[in-house]
Amino acid sequence: MEFIREKVRHPLVVRRVHVSVVRHVVPSIRRVTLTGDELDGFTSAGPGDHLKVFLPDPGTGTLTVPEVVPDGLRRPDRGVVISRDYTPRDFRPSGARPAELDIDFVLHGDAGPASAWASRAKPGDELAIAGPRGSRPVPAGIDGLVIVADETALPAASRWLRAVGDDVATTALFDVADETVDDYLDRATARRASIEWLHREDGDDVVGALRSLGPIGERTFVVLAGEATGLVPLRRYLRHELGLPAGQVAASGYWKRGVVNLDHHAPIDPTDPD
Questions:
Q1: Which residues contact 60 (CB under 8 A, 6 or more apart)?
Q2: 171-210, pLDDT tens digit by residue?
Q3: Does domain 138-255 have CATH number 3.40.50.300?
Q4: What is the assigned CATH class of domain 8-134?
Q5: Domain ranges of the chain
């Protein structure tokens, strides 16, 4: 089966927004709800969409935002531009209430600017977003879905679970730090899949869990997302041991140990980049 996922392009817009609500979904993940008139026209049609979040300079508190030019974004001559890529968790268009956008931040102390900002975020704080530049929908005609994701990819995983129909048999393997993350999904979303929570603190083996699923049918789409180096053995198993074609496996490195602001377009496995 050929998996067709035509990309839908969106106009590139930089939007200034402000925080309206902040809450912990689980102890290590904080959900920041953003609002503002500039969210009008925002769209995110694919479960794996990503946008750039522009953060204030932690030293000065100044938010410096690039400008849109014909070939993308141009940094201003002055100021420090700080950005990270995130999946929009939920978007609620304006109606009786102003438009709202939820973004989930994994907290890991002050080691990174996004975590440091999110841990202190409060209503009224300002930041900016740009994107998504494009969306890829769920492949048509699938009858199965397998998701392997870590904490950083849980928003995208949640969107995948909600995007597929009830007739699609779905299995999710979530590679997380410990059992405190297990309550991330709301009940309605969790019921849409057979879910196994794998805890790194207990030494749970995500590669072994994927192998335990056995053969993967030709109409089953596989999504791998999370820390880039951890995805390499998963992808190699699927592509080389099971022999799945490249188009049946979508692997996205959301971050990489030792690399600041990873380019998510970079190949997961440079030795086998197809």
A1: 80
A2: 999 999 999 999 999 999 999 999 999 999 999 999 999 9
A3: no
A4: mainly beta
A5: 8-134, 138-255
